[in-house]
Amino acid sequence: MNKNSLRVTDTILRDAHQSLLATRMRTEHMLPVASKLDRVGYHSVEMWGGATFDSAMRFLNENPWERIRLLKKEMPNTPFQMLLRAQNVVGYKHYPDDVLERFVVRAKANGIDIFRIFDALNDVRNMKKAMEFVKREGGHVQASICYTISPVHDIASFVEMAKELSDLGADSICIKDMAGLIAPYIAYELVSELKKAVDLPVQLHTHNTSGMGDSSLIKAADAGVDVVDTAISSIAGITSQPVTESLVASMKGTPRDTGLDLDLLAEIAGYFAEVRDSYAEFESGMKSVDVRVLRYQIPGGMLSNLITQLREQNASDKFEEVIAEVPRVRKELGYPPLVTPSSQIVGTQATLNVMFGERYKIIPQEVKNYIRGYYGRPPAPIDPEIKHKAIGDEEPIDCRPADLIPPGLEKAKKEIGDLARDEEDVLSYALFPQVARPYLEGIAEGAKEA
Question: What pTM does this model have?
Answer without folding.
Answer: 0.95
